[in-house]
Design a protein that fits this description.
The chain is α/β, with parallel strands linked by helices and 356 residues long. The protein folds into 2 domains: 4-12 and 254-354, Aspartate Aminotransferase, domain 1; 15-252, Aspartate Aminotransferase, domain 2. It is built from 9 helices and 14 strands. α1 runs antiparallel to α6 and α3 (74-86) packs parallel to α4 (100-109).
Length: 356
């Protein structure tokens, strides 16, 4: 039976990417060595790293004013690395709290300087994205989380401000076109929408470097990795390689505009069923619904069908549909690599349950 992977992360990857990656584990590009064992200083690995960076630049339309880094430690390490490089006791940063990950980023950044939470949706269990808040002009940066995997909300527009935007895009990077010039730093753990766990993509404006004068551990200094082109120490070669293959796949399938159209179509298919099927109801505010992580629950009075629905999903090959404990219910993560066929299978399960 075909499996449809709705897990939030580590998440689905394109089948063609996994097939090529599997072959490279045995023999990378015919050199007689596995991708797992080649030197990160070898010409083959250097060429792979350069292609990965070039594809990031091409797909996002980056200028030379941005550096592209492939680091480790996940987005969670960036929670404090951003503040370590951009904030001190004389400076103030602001955050918008839209879920678990932004709350953790706030907790880490508090150790480095003045912090203001401009807006929060905690009052309604992060089921919406705050809007209309004022942004002070004297901020070192404003931190946002573009997509909230647990609660199923997504920023549709980014604030208009001259303050540098720092954004955690772990779960929706490369899912839609963006005006990158509005961002100072973008970071993303790969395991949601780009590649396997183990590498973190960081994109940063070079003019933000070296503004903070403090003694930094070498590995926490962005300048270290910019100067050494992500190879100050041994990088996570295999996760970067699989991410590079995914970027190739993205380009071959029309780039970000094509991905956005596909993602909107898939999400609409699922949200239409949630809204029309009396057994289900959505969790996130309609205007803030994520195109990546669709959260929903059984409607009032039908909670007793939860186990039945999950069993029906498993029988149809729909894996990873159970919701996060913070929200309950169900969550379908429909990243770039999820084909419409997978979403349709889930919708068919929902329809069948409603017709019984």
């Amino acid at each position: 039976m075909k499996k449809h992977n709705f897990y939030a992360g580590p998440a689905i990857l394109p089948a063609s990417v996994m097939a090529e990656a599997a072959q490279s584990v045995v023999d990378f590009e015919g050199i007689g060595l596995s991708i797992l064992e080649i030197s990160h200083r070898s010409k083959e690995c250097t060429a792979m790293l350069e292609e990965a960076e070039a594809l990031v630049r091409e797909l996002l339309g980056l200028t030379d004013g941005y550096a592209v880094l492939f680091l480790t430690g996940g987005a969670s390490t960036q929670f404090f690395t951003v503040a370590h490089n951009l904030l001190n006791k004389d400076l103030k940063a602001a955050y918008v709290d839209t879920g678990s990950w932004s709350s953790k980023a706030i907790k880490e950044a508090k150790e480095y300087g003045q912090l203001e939470v401009l807006a929060s949706s905690k009052d309604k269990n992060f089921s919406y994205v705050p809007k209309g808040y004022d942004i002070p002009e004297d901020l070192a940066y404003l931190h946002l989380t573009s997509n909230n995997t647990i609660f199923g909300t997504q920023l549709k527009e980014f604030p208009a401000t001259e303050v540098p935007l720092v954004c955690d895009m772990s779960s929706d990077i490369f899912s839609r076109p963006l005006d990158i010039s509005r961002f100072g730093i973008i970071y993303a753990g790969a395991q949601k929408n780009l590649g396997p766990a183990g590498v973190t993509l960081v994109i940063l404006k070079k003019d933000l470097l070296s503004k903070i004068q403090r003694t930094m551990p070498t590995m926490l200094n962005y300048s270290t990795h910019v100067e050494k082109k992500s190879t100050f120490n041994t990088p996570p070669v295999f996760p970067i390689y699989v991410s590079m293959l995914t970027l190739r796949w993205l380009k071959a399938n029309g780039g970000l505009a094509a991905m956005a159209a596909r993602n909107e179509e898939k999400a609409q298919l699922l949200y239409d069923e949630i809204d029309s099927n009396p057994l289900f109801e959505g969790v996130a505010a309609k205007e803030d619904r994520s195109l990546m992580n669709v959260t929903f629950v059984m409607s009032a009075g039908n909670e007793g069908l939860t186990d039945k629905f999950l069993a029906d999903c498993a029988a149809a090959g729909c894996i990873g549909v159970k919701g996060h404990r913070s929200v309950g219910g169900f969550r379908a993560s429909i990243y770039n690599a999820m084909p419409k066929e997978g979403v349709q299978t889930l919708v068919d399960v929902m329809k069948a349950l409603g017709n019984k």
